[in-house]
Amino acid sequence: MTQSRNNDNFSRRSFLKVAGLGGAALCIGLDFISEANAAVIKPHEASLAAIEFNPWIIIDPTGKVTIIDHRAEMGQGSYHSVPQIVAEELEVDLKDINVEFAIGNEKKYGGQVTGGSSTIRGSYKNLLKLSASAREMLTTAAAMAWSVPVSECYAQSGHIFHKPSGKKAGYGELAFAASKLEAPKEPKLKKISEYKLIRKPIRRIDTAAKTNGSLVFGLDKRIPGLQFASVERDPRFLGKVKSFDASEALKVPGVKKVFKVTMGYYEFNREGVVVVANSTWAALQGRKKLKVTWDSGDFKHWSTPEILKKQGELIQSQEGMPLKTQGTPTELLAKALKKIDVTYQTPYQSHCAMEPVNCIAHYKGDSVEIWGPIQAPGWIQDYVSKKFGIDKEKVLVNMTFLGGGFGRKAMTDYPHEAVAISKEIGTPVQVIWTREDDATLGPFRPGISYRCEGTIANGKIEALKFRMAGQNNDHWRGGKKTEPNRSTSEGFLKPYYESIKNLSISDVLFETSIPTSFWRSVYASTNGFAYESFMDEMAHQAGTDPLDFRRAHLQEERCQKLIDKMEEVSGWKKRKKNEGYGVAITECFETTVGQVVKVSKNPNGGVKIDKVWAVMDCGWYVNPDIIHAQVEGSIVMGIGAATTHQITFKDNVVEQHNFYDYPMPRINEIPAIEVHIMENEADAGGVGEPGLPPLAPALTNAIFDLTGKRIRTLPFKLSEV
Question: 3-state DSSP call for residue 573?
């Protein structure tokens, strides 16, 4: 496959080169009338409509096909999946496609936030339509050239063939004529049964470049005149720089300048002292020589025991703000002769992507250009534009490959800080965070406490009541504190609302000065543990098999089929003595995932995880290998969050610093994982995140099945169960 080895974005300069081809190239794109119903357009049609043209597919006179990927690639596979979709309907070989990242421009490319497992589910219909339109235009151009009916022509491997005569023409030969044709409004799409590429386990096109080191991640990016910076930031988010002594830092060879810098996190600020040097090494060594005095006295300092205690008190004493209420759960629970009333707690977590946060910025006075591992270019354009008083159109954001993101690299703080430093020094600068910065400074997944109450009647749930106390990520972005966290029910399956007639889910306001934000699967990663663990407790109270209990409460057809599959692949009905089996089913980003975990006693003490079966119903999908990888990665991450690591605070300062005290699961700790994908033609759901939430509850439910011990607080050590 032809790839852009420096992975430059599809910039204005690149488009000018394409435009220089005149009508010789076929360039088609999408006019985002709405995200769900975009119109296929060509350059002159955009001009007539007074909109900026956005090329998504470019076929030049040589037959080279360039696809513009509008989303970031952070391991989840969009860099491969988008071309695989296009290649299917365009009828080209993947090896003949060049892929380039789009520059940040929501007017041209629609939403570009790589998060919420939204890339495929939000774009696949438009991509199929766009590709099929290009294929039909090329087919029509060939039929016209040969003076034959279009019905006698077909596309294959970048060529149009005439069935009766055997004539063929390459896409490059037809690009000029095709560019003059009107784009079809409703091209004919293939049936799923006709796919040759989609739903096939095709090897990812970025694997070779990742393994041979030629791929450019944010840390690898270089531009002329680049300086390097490292920042000593206040370990307490809202603290201030009281004073600093840079005399020793300035003696380090290569260090050029030291000054105070402010990094914005939404409407809040974090202060620090930056060391600018001619190399990353010099900047880091200079930073070690800094002497900084912090002023952190004007806000409350929290410690983890206090956070857990306060959250526990709140969910016991307050009803909270209801997000979802139906029936009369409070009244029924109040008069119930027998009910379950328990508390679950989950910890704060750091993102700890393999590539620490970094960013290059060049402030040019009336414009800004940014390069880096970025999940949300549009958000950064908005934020930088506002902070520096520059037109959004003049804030150019270039996406490199990301060495992991998990939500952290959707934030606007680190690009803002890089722009502020560049403005001060007058040159482009790369700001690099250390692993310790990445682990200790946040933002973090919020730690949350849950109170779960329920009662059973006639073997089914009569009333259910959830209360959640944890930081609301929306509050950092100006969300109303009088409204419940909109993610309080995330992870809880919608079909439960049909079978549980008396139900309430509420958010109890809890705040600290600790910055929080998205973490893979967001609130579903914590909600799922509480809600699905409690479902298991309710099943035990009802005296019903946990999987049968869920089957009785999830009557929707797709859920029933998913449960059938879980039962089949795991051998659920054939469980043996001295084996613990646990189940959990969660939903997020329009995808449902069920997992069965098998555990047994470890001869060396505690328990060990023997196997995880995962069944995913994501509807329409692209590549099963990528889905398997994402689910496997989610399970590994879920094991870590449940059993090996957490972020704790003492006096508002993080106590963990690196992998030595925030340990990741080791390869010898990972069980066998078996992934199954449900086959149907429903609309696409997400893939990158939904595989994580079921792991923790399925695991703890399995431990209960084996030992009779309920685990309601994460993390826990398998060796100590």
Answer: helix
536 burial (CB, 10 Å; 0-12 / 13-18 / 19+) is: buried
| Domains by residue range for the chain, with CATH | 12-212 (3.30.365.10), 218-298+357-432 (3.30.365.10), 304-348+444-720 (3.30.365.10)
> What does DSSP assign to residue 408?
G
Residue 505 pairs in a beta bridge with 324, 466
- Entry field: residues in the chain: 721
Q: Vertex 423, ends 421 and 424: CA angle to 5°?
A: 65
pLDDT tens for residues 218-263?
A: 999 999 999 999 999 999 999 999 999 999 999 999 999 999 999 9
State how far the Cα of 558 lies from the Cα of 568, in Å rounded to an integer.
Answer: 15
Give the separation between CA 172 and CA 117, rounded to whole angstroms. Answer: 35
Task: Give the pLDDT confidence of 302-348 residue by residue, as tens digits.
Answer: 999 999 999 999 999 999 999 999 999 999 999 999 999 999 999 99
Q: Are 67 and 98 in contact (CB under 8 A)?
A: yes
Under 8 Å between Cβ of 40 and 184: yes
Let me know the angle formed at the C-alpha of 208 by 203 and 210, rounded to the nearest 5 degrees. Answer: 115
Question: Encoding tokens for residue 73?
Answer: 């690639």
Query: Distance between CA atoms of 587 and 595, rounded to whole angstroms?
Result: 12
Entry pTM: 0.94
